[in-house]
Amino acid sequence: MSKDVAPTEVGVLGNLAEDYERARVAWYYFVGGLTQQEIASRMSMTRLKVNKLIGQVRESGAVHIDVALPLIDCVALAEALSGRYGLVDATVVPDVPDHVEQKRVMGEAAGTMIGALIEGRDLGIGIATGRTLSFAVRALQGRPHPDSWVVGLTGGVTRSSGTNTFEVATSFARKLGVECHYLTAPLYCASPEGRETLLLIDELTDVLARTEIADVGVTSCGSLAEETTLTQIRAVKDHLDDVQKLGAVGELLGCFLDSQGRPVDHFLNDSLMALTPAKLKLKPVSVLVSGGIDKIQIIRAILRAGYVNRLVTNESVARALLAGPR
Fold this sequence. Notes:
It is a single chain. This protein is of the alpha/beta class. It has helices spanning 7-31, 36-43, 47-60, 72-85, 99-118, 131-136, 165-176, 192-198, 202-213, 234-245, 267-270, 277-280, 296-305, 315-323, and strands spanning 89-93, 124-127, 149-152, 179-181, 216-219, 221-223, 250-252, 255-257, 285-289, 310-314. A 7-stranded parallel β-sheet has the order 1-10-9-5-2-3-4, with helices on both faces. β7 and β8 (255-257) form a beta hairpin. α1 crosses α3 (47-60), α2 (36-43) packs across α3 and α4 packs across α14. The radius of gyration is 21 Å and the shape is globular. Mean pLDDT is 88; it is low at 1-14.
């Protein structure tokens, strides 16, 4: 034992380490959905010890719907991300091996964040699209003022799996008990001129204006390295090589951005029926909910450009964002 550390201090440090270990085991089991054997392998401990720690957490009453214990390293990562990128707030969740489960835990963490932000307030809430955001509804606890409203931030796509902007916005509005407004147009028009023609329809112009005046904007982002609903849209599929040659590393609200967060000079960006990243940047509350190693480039680009002031992501992405260039 070091002569500089009192026995009582060692005891406190030991208790913190044990609390942290219990917290991570509890999170993986009750929130992340891992089996006891998976947790044992991940944390290099016996399954018997995992079982014992889970029993301790159950008996302590620390688990309700969420685990009421701190995940120290995730909190530290969130604080470091906030400091590095000038964020108002950030939440980092532990990594889980299953792709869909990772989206679920990020989405539910976002729902908790958003619920606290809207509680009792009279505001407009803009919601984008994606599976991760569809999970956020589950954890929404706060209720805004009854005069609040929800608006979809983007136009739609022609096929859906329950994560289309119309469906995600509808589920938010139903959960919050407020009205919902829809940008009933395709996400990408045939041309910039086609977009201008559609905007001659007053109802569409009015909804697009709502996307701009909404106090809260909640969005995810997309990588160009994977097959997504967006990259399978005919207009995008036909020009995906072109936007990548122009330096695009991903998309935000359907807008293709380069590594510095600048929209690339392509007609798809000029044909977009959605809130622009520049308008998202002006909102008092703007939340990016996204993770996965394939999205590091686009998440970093969005943070570099300052389009959002809050972030929800997973642990490995947070570490990569902090390790790489700002």
